[in-house]
Amino acid sequence: MSTATTRKSGIRKKSEEIEIPDKLYFRIGEVGRLCHLPPYVLRFWETEFPQLKPSKGSTGQRMYRRRDVEFVVRIRKLLYEDGYTIAGARHLLKAEGRPTKSQPGLPLQSVVKQDGLRRVRQQLQEILGLLSAKGKAPRPAAGRH
């Protein structure tokens, strides 16, 4: 790729060289300048990557949060540096975003929970018995169980 082509397409810098300023929100033009991408590419990526959803301000301007910008940098690296296709990058990012399946709980957990509840109930009944023995047992409110 020639230098002229590289400058026109705006993909000169490597992703690790991109420094994201410490701001809450970025407009699409700012993100484009930071990532060396034209705004139409960012709008297109919004349609291709469901995870990229910048909010829109009261004027309709796209407002990217820092995590959105970091996601753009990640997409850019996958497409331009690692050689992924859009479909391949989408699949990879989708797989990365999925939480790993956690190990199911032990079957004894429900028994332990029930046993714990039985113990608490028994202790409460003992306390009620102590209070009743002293003649100070509170009367339950009507309609409460």
State the order of secondary-structure elements, H for helix, E for strand.
Answer: HEHHEEHHH
Average pLDDT confidence is 80
> Rg to the nearest angstrom?
29 Å
User: What is the CATH topology descriptor of the largest domain?
Assistant: Multidrug-efflux Transporter Regulator, Chain: A, Domain 2
Q: Please state roughly what percent of the residues sit in beta strands, choosing from under 5%, 5-15%, 15-25%, 25-35%, 35-45% or over 45%.
A: 5-15%
Under the CATH scheme, which class of the largest domain? Mainly Alpha
Number of helices: 6
Characteristics of this structure?
single chain, disordered N terminus, 145 residues
Task: Tell me the layout of helices and strands.
Elements: H1 3-9, E1 25-27, H2 28-35, H3 39-48, E2 55-56, E3 62-65, H4 66-81, H5 86-97, H6 108-133
Antiparallel strand pairs: 1-3, 2-3
Task: Please explain how this structure is put together.
- The chain is 54% helix and 6% strand.
- It has 145 residues and is mostly helical.
- The chain folds into two domains: 3-97, Multidrug-efflux Transporter Regulator, Chain: A, Domain 2; 107-137.
- It has a three-stranded antiparallel sheet with strand order 1-3-2.
- A hairpin with a 5-residue loop joins strand 2 and strand 3.
- The relative contact order is 0.09.
